[in-house]
Specification:
By secondary structure, this protein is an all-alpha fold. It is built from six helices and no strands. α2 crosses α4.
Length: 120
């Protein structure tokens, strides 16, 4: 048997070498349908792959996105992101403390001649 020098037989088996792999864009309804089927658990991942012709990693990703969206809608995520309670009184006390420290240090540096803008 005589093999072509340019790898023509191998290219013929794989298809045209210049072909680019294309990705499919699925609409939201299809993604939701696949994700719901995965959540139900009535079929295995392999069965879902055969039914919908979608990679198992993609099925898992869509399932996780759907579950994440449900927790956000149900309010569980909203409770976790609630703003902490701020004690305004303690913040005012801290501001006063820092103001005293700044005044003291600027006076001490001014007396030592290290701060030109300090009060004398």
């Amino acid at each position: 048997m005589d093999f072509p020098r340019n790898g023509g037989m191998i290219a013929a088996k794989r298809g045209d070498c210049n072909e680019q792999k294309t990705t499919r864009d699925h609409n939201q309804a299809f993604k939701a349908k696949v994700a719901l089927a995965a959540i139900k658990g009535e079929k295995t991942l392999v069965e879902l792959l055969q039914d919908f012709d979608v990679h198992p990693n993609q099925i898992k990703q869509w399932r996780d996105q759907l579950l994440e969206g449900v927790t956000e809608i149900s309010g569980e995520a909203g409770k976790a992101e609630a703003a902490p309670v701020i004690d305004v009184g303690s913040l005012h006390a801290k501001i006063g403390e820092l103001t005293l420290e700044n005044d003291f240090l600027s006076g001490a540096l001014g007396k030592a001649g290290l701060l030109a803008s300090a009060k004398r």
